[in-house]
């Protein structure tokens, strides 16, 4: 299986990397041969390769329709990046907070279709995970071997920790002082004054201390402007009718005139109107039958 994935052309690997790491496809956890694995639905993969993000990629097969997307994704099956599976029954969950994982069985006939389910056998690049693991091990070893550090390093860490604790304590003192000052000003000069109003706001370090003070006034509420559609305006008593209303009146007059002149046309139109709902119902029933099948 690993050999098949290594023999895949660069275009196929680019598509798989996009689907696995960048497309944001919805995946579900399952169990394959006793091991946890993620699986996805075929329609999700087709939607991903038809997205604008896929169109911006380079060195990938061009896809313009769902049929082309299905053929391209079917061509990736021989490389065993993913395989078609059948889902088993949902087992009873042992933990209420954790959903039970469905058992998955790889089918013998491998064909890509939008209604099928496919299990991921490709984990992507593991370089970042390996580097993160090595970094964590290095930090733990450095912390454990602190007594063996040179004296200048231990002294530097000591002063650095004092500086961090001093900054944290200064922040707490400023928070208490500004709270006391606000309580005093809310009684003496309502609505109150905040010192460093952006101290705990989601802004940069410098912006947290700008401005120096501000009144405790809530921000104004945004008013939603309602747009009026043309032809939907109400007519005030005594005003002239709108052009749209005049046009509607002319159409009604013409319709009434044509009905009075030619009754046969009216009869045919009525029969056509009666037949239209029946035709629509027949089309809807046919579509529903196709969806069920």
From TrEMBL:
Membrane-crossing segments per the record: 131-152, 158-181
Keywords from the UniProt entry: Endoplasmic reticulum, Membrane, Protein transport, Translocation, Transmembrane, Transmembrane helix, Transport
Biological process annotations from GO: post-translational protein targeting to membrane, translocation
Topological category with respect to the lipid bilayer: Multi-pass membrane protein
GO cellular component: endoplasmic reticulum membrane
Domain of life: Eukaryota
Broad class of where this protein is predominantly found: endoplasmic reticulum
Keyword S-adenosyl-L-methionine: no
Keyword set includes Phosphoprotein: no
Location of the region described as Disordered in the Swiss-Prot/TrEMBL record: 228-259
Subcellular location: Endoplasmic reticulum membrane
Family membership noted in the UniProt record: Belongs to the SEC62 family.
PANTHER family for the chain: TRANSLOCATION PROTEIN SEC62
Name of this chain's protein: Translocation protein SEC62
């Amino acid at each position: 299986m690993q050999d098949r994935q290594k023999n895949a052309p660069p275009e196929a690997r680019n598509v798989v990397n996009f689907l696995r790491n960048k497309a944001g496809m919805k995946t579900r956890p399952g169990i394959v041969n006793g091991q946890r694995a993620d699986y996805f639905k075929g329609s999700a993969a087709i939607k991903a390769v038809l997205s604008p993000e896929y169109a911006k990629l380079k060195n990938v097969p061009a896809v313009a329709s769902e049929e082309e997307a299905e053929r391209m994704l079917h061509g990736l099956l021989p490389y065993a990046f993913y395989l078609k599976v059948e889902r088993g029954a949902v087992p009873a969950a042992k933990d209420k907070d954790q959903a039970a994982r469905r058992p998955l069985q790889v089918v013998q006939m491998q064909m890509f279709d939008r209604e099928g389910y496919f299990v991921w056998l490709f984990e992507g690049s593991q370089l970042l995970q390996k580097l993160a693991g090595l970094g964590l091990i290095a930090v733990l070893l450095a912390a454990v071997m602190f007594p063996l550090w040179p004296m200048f390093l231990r002294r530097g860490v000591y002063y650095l920790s004092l500086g961090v604790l001093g900054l944290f304590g200064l922040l707490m003192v400023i928070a208490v002082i500004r709270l006391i000052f606000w309580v005093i000003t809310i009684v003496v000069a309502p609505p109150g004054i905040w010192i460093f109003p952006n101290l705990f706001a989601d802004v940069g370090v410098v912006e947290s201390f700008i401005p120096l003070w501000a009144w405790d006034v809530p921000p104004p509420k945004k008013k939603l402007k309602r747009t009026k559609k043309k032809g939907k305006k109400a007519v005030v008593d005594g005003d002239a009718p709108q052009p749209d209303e005049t046009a509607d009146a002319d159409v009604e007059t013409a319709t009434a005139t044509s009905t009075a002149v030619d009754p046969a046309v009216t009869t045919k139109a009525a029969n056509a109107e009666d037949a239209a709902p029946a035709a629509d119902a027949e089309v809807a029933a046919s579509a529903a039958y196709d969806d069920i099948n």
